Each structure stands twice: as structure tokens, then as C-alpha cells.
């Protein structure tokens, strides 16, 4: 049977080319997503500033959160915990450096501090000069004394110049005492200060960002550090230099898992549809094989052999090109700041193996489905069966549809009854796939029923060609469903995902705008000196001013079952002082209660609840004093002041007065519109990721639809020839094909819209109270236009080619 399968492949190149393309693109996307996932898991970051230190000690960036209330458990039992990534840089006590110097074998210990600085118009990172040995930098000139600075060679400055440097909310004039040259290309330019100046400008006196250790045994260093930090070597040192890669790696894992899983599921349907259609078009050939004595097992083996040969070839090419696509996708993610540009793309053999296994499994499953019906036909009925389209209803299809519809309904109920705010997307998103897969399982029957419902309007508009097209659609429901299903998937997935994103953005912007009482903002890229608040508050026309700090905190005691790996969003304002905290009603606490928190850098603090307020669902947060929250952020200062104008003072006048009051300070003044625009821009990263995912699915669907329609239409040359011999002109045949394409697009759009509604409506009811999504209608119209154009082009081009030449010649060509 293998020899027969190979001969069949040579004679039916078109059908198997379609299968090759479907498997190839499915395996390609899965392989690329696997590379992104491996990159997120590895989170390998090349060391730059700390490259010369063989051992680097830093703060523990993870926090263990109990999964159950420790008070209800036996103290002797082992508690289950989940690890959360702390959002702010965790530093270590400078005294730890002295302890490490006492470790036998250690030859040198160097502490590293790093803080944002502005050198004229250029952005840079400031450090103490003694930490230059961690890279190491080469010095031309002299080491800096207090009031001096060594500048990076890339800044193009000269020794002896005076350089204004803005750091930690203030501007100082520093004489350039030397030029430092790095041994490799660095992401950030460097400014080196004396140890005393660097400690003052860092904003975290008595602490180091990291400590480089030269010499000594790793185990001995680890023992000396104890619980005061973590010890890293090799490529792990990069995570201490760039702590943001840890959280980004986790996000990349989730993104790759969702994208790859969704692509794999779509691939199963696409490959199954393509292979089933290819086998269906060979019913006469398969029937003849049954009639001359081929056993059902042999027939199944032949179909499986053909599919595996094509699948193996497609997978082999895909796994070679998968890393290229993965690297391109990673580059786009880095360019749009979804992941840090210092993270290194890594793809080994495992993603290729998973992609190959998933793709070949889809091929085997599809070939089993495709060959099952033909292999079960009795030899005496084989020739008759070849002329009749196979039945579409099977117990497996019905059971699959029922399970999917039940799952989609359950998720819709959970979304409306349990979820709140934007987190409702976590159940609304998967519901799209369940509704889509349920309809796909019974798509031939649904296609036939929908075509019957469209009978009267189609006949009224298109006449006799429309009636013939309707008959072709109803009789060839299985063939038509092969084209309807992928378009339905694309319309449903694209519409749902895009409108879920636009609705979430609109609700987020609305919530921010409703809570915003400020008319102007004073912002400092390196943080604002606390004295700025008093200066701004004294400006005529200012009704109130407050520092504005954002971070995340974790409720440690009493136990909070809502604690997740992201913690509670926290807002720091100047209106609160001491250890006061304002909490949302959903936290379940009362005025006077004491909460034990872990701040963003892991620092424990006890706060007293002074207010319990009702906040918008999904946007709850804890409000703390800015003076308490800001020192425990990476920056160490409030990055913004929000200013409210006094009655009768217009925003433009207020902004002008603020600029005058802050002249000469390293700050920028913006109006209310700038605040809203900055908040909206923060949502663009999530939107871009969503659009990338939708784009990949649509691109794959385009390939599938073109495969299916081109293959199906090209095989109808004999049918078109008979119609022309029966009195149809070539133009009428093409118009009939065009009506069929329009019917396919209409049915797919209707079903896709139904699929999207099953996800969008519950989500919108939760987050906005309306069943309709937020977002421009043009999005839906573009999706519809793509579906219509795709269907018409994919069916009319091969129909035009199939009707070329004489009709009598077309009828003589075998099927």
C-alpha cells in the first residue's frame, strides 16, 4: 500500500500540495511559539555591567505566597505556596559586602548602585566609580572626586568640560574628570561619580543593587549570604542586572502558550478539513479499490501513508524555518516593548519536537477521519457510494458539538455571575474557541440550514444562477462547510479578540478619566524631589497638589484569598500620612483593622485601615501615603505630581504658571489631556500583542480558505463543462460560482458573528453593563470585507481557469 500511496501522490499533486501547505504553516507557527515559550522559560540575559564579576549577589526578586490560610493549617504540615515576582528592584544591605570580604578565598568585593540620570539631552545610568571594575571600563583621565564625573565614551564629551546632570530630582554641575570606555556595546550609557555622590544620587543610601564577588568558592559565598540575598553565576547574573526580564519572561510564556495552543487547535480543523475534502474528491478512486478487493485496513493504511508522507515533508521544512519566524516575532515584541531588548531569543530542539509531534498527530487524526467512511463501504455499494456525498452527522460530531456548546455556556455563566472587571476576559476568551469548535463539528448541517434560510433573498437578487448556486451549496454541504469553517473561525476569533481588547481599553480609560481630578501634571523622568510639592502647592491658582506613585503590594496578614502573583495595585498620594491605608470594600476589611503588607521591593510594613471605599469592579487598589510607598519603588521618588486648579483658573493658565515656578528644574509640565493620553498609551502594548495573535490566525485562515476553495473549485471542471453544454454561458457559470462564494462568505460571517457574540456579550455585560462592545464599527466591517473578498477571489479565480477552453473537452477529463 505504501507504493500505491507514493504513486497516488505523484498523480494528485494539487490536493496533496494543499495538505502540505496547511500542515507546514500550522507546524511553523507552533514551532515559532515554542521558541518564544522557551525564551521566556530560560530568560537568558547577557551580562553587561556585571560581566567581569564571576559571582554576583543580589536581592531575592520573588515572594512566596501561601495558597491557603496558614492559621487554619497544622504548623507541622508543609504549606503550599506560589511564587510572585516583586515589581520593584530588591536591593541588599551594603553591610553584606563586609561579610563577603571575610569569606576565605575572596579577593575583592565591589558594590553596584545604578540610577537614572540625564546628562544634558542624553539619558544614562549613574554609578559609583569603583563599580567600573565590574565591567571593566578603561579610564582615560582621572577617577572622579566629589563634584566630578567620568562619562561614557559614547557621549562624545571631553575632559575638563562642565556637565549638567539631572538625577534623583535635582540638577547639579559636574566637571568631567575622565572618559570611560566599555569593552563591549552596552545598552545604557554610563556616568560614574564618586562613592559619596553616587550614594546620595541613588536615593537608597546604605544599599547596593548588586554586589560583585571576585575569587572564593560559590558554596562558601552562598553560606555567607544566607537569607540576605541570592547568589548567581554564569548567565544567571543577567537577571540581577536586569530584574525586569523575570516578569517579562513569565508574560512571554503565557503569550506563547496562548498563541501556540490556539494555532494548534486551528491547525487540527484546517488539516482535517483539507485532508477530508481531498479524500472526498477521490471517492470514485477509493470505491474502485474497494470493488477490486482492497480491504478496509489497506485503504486506511494507504490514506494514512499518503498523509504521513506529506506531513513529514511539511513538518521537516517548518521546523527548519520555525526559529526564523520565532526570532522575527521576538524582535517585534522587543521593538514594541512587550519584552526587554536585553532578553536573548533561545530556541533549542524541544519546540521543534513538540511542533512536529503536534502536527503529525493532527495529520494522523485527520487521515483517520478522512479514510474511515470510505473504508467502511461494502464492495457491492462502493460504486454507488462514490456518486453520493457522505453523511455529515455522526455520533462523534454530535457529542463534540454538545460538549463544546455546554462548555461555552458554562463559561458565559461564570463570566456574568462570578467574574468582575477586565479579569472577565480570562473566561470570555476561551468561550470563543468552544463555540467555534462546536459549530465546526456540525458545520455541514448548519451550512445546509443557513443556506435554506437565505434561499428567498438570494433567488430574488440573483435569479437562475442563484438558484443553481443554492442547490450546489445544499447538495454539496460537506464541501461548502470545508470553506465555511475556517472563515467562521477567523471571523469569530478576530472579532471577539479585537472587540474584547477595545472594550477593555475603553473601560480602563473611562475608569481612569472618571477618577482623575487633576488639571495638570508635573513629571520628572528621574523622580521629583520632595521639595517640588511645596513649591507647586504655593503657585497662585493651585487648589491642591499631590504626589502620585504607583506600585503593587501583597497582603500578608490577615490572609487574603484574592492575593495573586500580581498583588494588589497600589497608589501613593500625599493626602495620606503615616501608616494609613485606604482599601476597597472587596478586601473585606474594616476601619481600624491592621494589615501586614509586603511592599513592591519585599519590605514588610504594618498599616492601619483609615477608610473603606467602594471602587469600580476590576480596578480596585490600595491607597497609601506617597511618603511610605515611594522609597520602596525602583526609582525611590514620586515620578509625578497631580495638580488641581482653583475655581476660575483655566488649565492653560495653570500650566503656564507651573512652568514658571519649576523653571530650571528637571521636570516637565503637562495638562489633563497629556495624563489621559499617557494612560491610554500604556494599554497599547496589550493591544499590539492581541492584534499580533489575531493577525497570525487570520493569515493561517487565508491559507486554509485558499487551499479549500481552490482545490474544490478546480475539481469541478467537468461539472462546469456539463453546465455549459446544457445551455449555460461561461459568464453564467462564473456568476454562479460568484454567488456560491458570496453564500460561503455570508454563512461564515453569520456563524462567526454568533461565535463572537457568545464571548463578547457576557464580557461587555460585566465590564460596561451593555451587551454591545466598545470600539469602531469599522473593525467589524473590515473583518467582513476580508471574508467576502477572500471567498470570492478563492472561488472565482480557479473557476475562471476551469472554464477556459471548450466545454466538451472539460467533460472528457476524469474527476
TrEMBL record:
Q: How does it sit in the membrane?
A: Multi-pass membrane protein
- TM region(s), chain numbering: 252-277, 307-329, 349-370, 398-420, 432-456, 477-500, 688-712, 733-758, 778-802
The compartments listed are: Cell membrane
Entry's Pfam families?
A: FtsX
Q: Which residues form the signal peptide?
A: none
Gene Ontology CC terms:
plasma membrane
Residue ranges occupied by any ABC3 transporter permease C-terminal domain in the UniProt entry: 260-377, 692-803
What GO MF annotations does this protein's record show?
A: transmembrane transporter activity
Tell me which domain of life the UniProt entry assigns to the organism this sequence originates from: Bacteria
Provide the alphabetized UniProt keywords: Cell membrane, Membrane, Transmembrane, Transmembrane helix
Spell out the family assignment given in the record's similarity comment.
Belongs to the ABC-4 integral membrane protein family.
Protein's name in the database: ABC transporter permease
Give the organism, scientific name.
Amycolatopsis mongoliensis
